[in-house]
Amino acid sequence: MKKVAGRAARGTAMRGAVVVLLSILAAQPLSSAQSRAPHQGLEPVTPEDYGRFESPGAATLSPDGRWLAYAVNRVNEQNELRVQRIGRDTAVIVPYGGSVKFSGDSRWAAYSIGIAPSERERLEEAEEPVRQRAAVLDLTTGTTTALGAIRSFEFSPDGEYLALHGYAPEDARGSDLIVRDLVRGTNTSFGNISAYAWAPDGALLALTLHTESGTGNAVQLYDGPSGALRVLDSSSYRYDGLAWRDDARDIAVLRSMPDSTYRDTAYSVLAWTDVNTTAARRFQLDPYRTNDFPAGVRISDTRTPQWSTDGTLITVGLRTRVHASAVARAAERDSAGDAPDDVPRDGTQSDVQVWHAGDVRIIPEQKAQEQQDLRRALLAAWHIDEDRLVQIGTELHETARLLPDGRHATETDQSRYEFGAMFGRPGGDVWLIDVDTGERERVLENVQWYGGASETGRYLLWFNDGTYWTYDVQTGARTAISSAVNGVFANQEYDYPVEALPPYGIEGWTRDDEALLVYDRYDVWLVGPDGSGGRRLTDGAAEHVIHRVADVYDDDDGIHPERPLYFSLFGERTKQSGWARMEADGPVERLVLEDARLERLMRADSADTFAFTRERFDDAPDWFVGDSDLSDARQVSELNAFQIDYAWGHSELVDFTSTAGLELQAALLYPADYDPSRQYPMIVYTYERLSQNLHNYVVPSERSYYNFSVFTANGYFVLMPDIVYRGRDPGVSALEAVVPAVQTIVDPERIGIIGHSWGGYQAAFLPTRTDIFAAAVAGAPITNFLSF
What we know:
single chain, mainly beta, six-stranded mixed sheet, globular
């Protein structure tokens, strides 16, 4: 059983290379279930055995932290789901198991079940539907109940009921829905359900019905404990976009408004507050009756209604209406060869593309984003008590957002900077909108990187020329907040040819807006939004260890100062990884740091139980579960345990100096059958910085065309050198890094180079400037920057 190194483990990476044919100092191995040293007499893996190799898929912890459910994906697609009790070596194994959810009380687990690849292929060839099934597992008894063909499922917040939505018949929107009482094992069935959503608490389910004739369409509420069914609204129209208000029994829904005058479909909005109580109130946003409804637009179904935090307004999306007569006129002009381009047209379309120098998005990009563009909508706010609509958004391709205070909104405006943005010079203005009156003010101009609003909505954040700024929505004050602390927040390692460096990154705000967490090269800083100063929370710069906040809490209301903060750790030069923790106002405590790749840290919702994965190039990733200290985490999976039967390579870190004088590194992967007395060919793989892939485990597969485990199994060394680019001279920059890296490792006899896309550019360019490569493979290479 492999073990996680103890608290504050500090393994040392290999720091030098000898310029002798493939004679390189080996790093000391970590304790592991699968030894890094080659197994004498073992053969490397062959294609016949690739199919059995496994990699971890999605995973989740039960709220109480006693169960871990994780997917195991295999190269041959014989995948499975494992639901495992922590502390036990046995697990419930579900062949072709898919997504899994735990009930809030941690008593139940529901999961989807797919089908075998051969059966899926048979159904697809026969043009028959491919449908997944579902089942529910009682975690207290181990009893599994099959639930039939189900396309989606959701537990009620109290964990006592499970809603199961079936598949709709062909060309139908509604399908059967079952609400299962998990304790009693009874089912309540509903037909023609198009959508469903549980209230934020309890077991109150909202349903929309859609029948083929339309006569039975409705919005209904089903109360699980009482079994009562209540109709909120019924009509022959279509209902979409169910939306509960967070932490409240308020609900909204869209109802269609067919009108033959227009080609499109408009909607009204229905809303209820304190629904299912005697204090319930009903509201309706009707475009023909609501005050101040903008002319020439409609409410669109592409944006789901969203409640403000205080429940006084609901945001919706608007689109310009398309008149049916305009479509008819367009068809006539199309047939006459004089079709306009501002309305949809039927009939055969020309395949001629007219490119314009003023286009910000070129034609292929416009085509790729066509469906996304059709779903865009302008933001508007409906004041439900006053039945008044205020339009906020003005441009479909800009971003408009309601601020958390519910009284203001913002909209970005990049129209004055579009040309520069195409060439690495981002810029934009920000408008502040009064949601009550619709009045607009341009409060920010030529913002390079806009960070949005704070948790309460009081501050707007942006980053210009290496400095973080805030705009106080209440006072209008603009403050250079990072000028009060001694940190460098512009990314000095960013080697794209831009005029202004981007920030290292923003973690987020504390929930009360008292502070903002941002990054420099190695550390996390806490900065006051009013220019009062701040402090560095971590001390990664001393050892060149990069600290970043690990998001382990399942909420979105800001950073809670009273809870421990967890940090991911990565050694910039050692490639070690791990985690640290900081209690409220306490010091940073390093929990684990080792020569491996540790990632995917997660925490149970209601317990201090944590899970994460650990891997090395020669050791498959596995799940570990432990308490808040992490250092005593227990391994709960053992993927690819059979790998010990094969010869396998290992990875080492190499330091070298580019001809431009830069101290760089490379990851070197050894052949699976490495014998120091033999000579081996080598493949150089290029892109940008790649040495951070030192500990990446690569599942052998013929579907992965640049598969390093396959290369090493076939007797190749693989070298992945770091490349730092100089602006406007990328090819020579690569040459300055790659050639010294290769010459540091091996005499250039049988060396090939491979790259894809941007790496393909190097694979195409470098052989024109050096003769050290015997062969080159350039996959989808960039060979002409103008056409690219």
